[in-house]
Amino acid sequence: MFSKESLYINAIKYKAQLKINYKKLQNNNIVETNNSTFIAKDDILGRDIAMKLIAHSSEIDNTYISTLLIQDETKLIKKNKTKLIDYAVTSLNNDYDIAISKNTLFETKNYFEKCGVDYIFSAYHILNLHIEQNHCNNNLVILLFNNQAFCLILNSKGEIVFNKRIELTPFEEIQNSEFYENEVLGQKLYDEVYALELHEAIKNTIEEFYVKSKNIFIEKVSILYNLKLISDDQIKAMSEEFMIEVTYHPISVDEELFELSKDTHTHKSFIKPRPKPKNGFKSLILILSIIAMILAIGYLFLPIEKILGKKEEIAITKNIKKVIDLPDHVEKNTEVENRVLKSLEMIPYDVVLKELLFEKNTLKIDANLLNKDTFIKVIQPELLKSYKMSDINFNDDTKSVILDAVILAEGLKNKKIVKFKDYKDIYVSNEFIPIITVTEQIKMLFPKDTIVTFKSSFESEVVTFNYLVNVVIKKPLDFFEIMNTLNNELYSINISYPLSFVKTEAGIEVEFTLQFHQPK
């Protein structure tokens, strides 16, 4: 009996990132998982990311791409109420439907236009699923996600009796305000503003509810977060002030979205899934295989002329093009890109990076910290997911409140990577290109003031030119745009180690080895 395979892809758009989670199932059992994060600031999904999603989807017929609304402005409405005009409506639970304006829904659908999407849910669906799986009677439950607070109050029967969605100030607004001085103090200011806003949001929500309802008493406040921004002491202070229990614990949005994408909850999506390919192609392959087998048997026992008929021999001259295997530059660049991105993502807002140095198996981080505990509690656990060991050295000479430290991570782990599809593009392979021409072509791929210096060359199965590239960028996103430019080239060009990022007055100075490969 054939096994049934399916692939679930969660693609969640944040402010300037797209986080993707893959789950491959075989007979409803998870057999492979993988995660990746991409820089994504445009209104429509980039072609390179879309092509990767299409490539993943092409491997398995039953592939489903799920996402959450990019702009979640949903409204909860009682079932059997008058339908809202120009709104898309779907089910939340047995008592409520959920509605979103068709224009806002179009924004999310249009974002995934290049690769398509099967399911679109609201953050309220995530929150409601949590409530279905946990007892939340007489409870104010809040989901903090994408600078929004999604609030639901439930009665003693676990029924929703009040809902509210609150916008919270994003970090970018603090960063652009007149009170922003530097990254460390700016993050501290944001944390204080965020905690104060959340405190006021809970207080106002409770007061607003009690004005409307006198028969239900809120016994507990449950706060669910995808990214921890509130300290345990702040939660304890809230609990003492409100005089009710306040809890604060993480929720995996990816896992909840995966559950929503499975058969029992798919009717809650704002859109219907795309039709999936039938097994006709596989049947055709089977038929062709049988025909080939019959011909093979006939060839063993009968002259080929009797099977196909005798034909005159015709001499055909063919131009045979030599196929050259060059290093897959997209795969190599993606490995570097993911490693840099993971290192940047693990750095909390209260840490300022001064220098990053990536070697083949090591990472060195020169940074300023506000608290020594940040390394033990936040940075080291993340580093040990990718490296075998990690340590930190503080500069004991400094008397400043800001701690100067060097973090070392060694022994890069060789993690198993789920490969859905190999890179198949054909490289441009004309006549051999001399060093001078290659150098001029490479300079055109980088900003005007970039310094490109030829260092060495070596021959193996192919010829490789090594260059030292020094470029100053304004923000980390510029580095990933350089990566995207290289990946779109039809030549085998990849970034190699060592790779360093140094914060300077002019910007971020990036230096790395660049390799250009071509046939002999």
* Record field, number of beta strands: 21
> What is the assembly state of the chains in this entry?
single chain
Beta-strand percent range: 25-35%
Poorly predicted runs are: 280-286, 304-322, 416-425
CATH topology of the largest domain: Nucleotidyltransferase, domain 5
What is the CATH superfamily label of the largest domain?
Answer: ATPase, nucleotide binding domain
Radius of gyration: 28 Å
How much helix, percentage-wise, in residues?
25-40%
Task: Supply the CATH class of the largest domain.
Answer: Alpha Beta
CATH architecture name of the largest domain:
2-Layer Sandwich
N-C termini distance: 49 Å
Q: What is the overall shape?
A: globular
Question: In what order do the strands lie side by side in the largest sheet?
Answer: 16-17-15-14-20-21-19-18
**Overall tally of structural domains:** 2
Overall structural class, as computed from helix and strand content, comes to: alpha+beta
Instruction: Report the biggest beta sheet as strand number plus sense, adding barrel if it closes.
Output: 8 strands, antiparallel
Quick rundown:
The chain has 520 residues and is α+β, with helices and mostly antiparallel strands.
Please characterize this protein's 3D structure:
The structure is a single chain. The chain has helices at 47-59, 102-111, 123-133, 171-175, 183-212, 232-242, 253-261, 280-301, 304-308, 329-345, 373-383, 435-443, 476-487, and strands at residues 5-13, 17-26, 29-39, 63-68, 75-78, 87-91, 96-101, 119-121, 139-145, 148-154, 160-167, 220-225, 245-250, 351-358, 362-369, 387-394, 403-412, 451-459, 463-473, 492-503, 508-518. It is α+β, with helices and mostly antiparallel strands. The chain has two domains: 5-268, Nucleotidyltransferase, domain 5 (2-Layer Sandwich); 329-518, no CATH class. Strands 16-17-15-14-20-21-19-18 form an eight-stranded antiparallel β-sheet. It has a five-stranded mixed β-sheet with strand order 3-2-1-4-8, sandwiched between helices. The chain has a five-stranded mixed β-sheet with strand order 11-10-9-12-13, with helices on both faces. Helix 3 (123-133) packs across helix 7 and helix 10 (329-345) runs antiparallel to helix 13 (476-487). The radius of gyration is 28 Å and the shape is globular. The two termini are 49 Å apart.
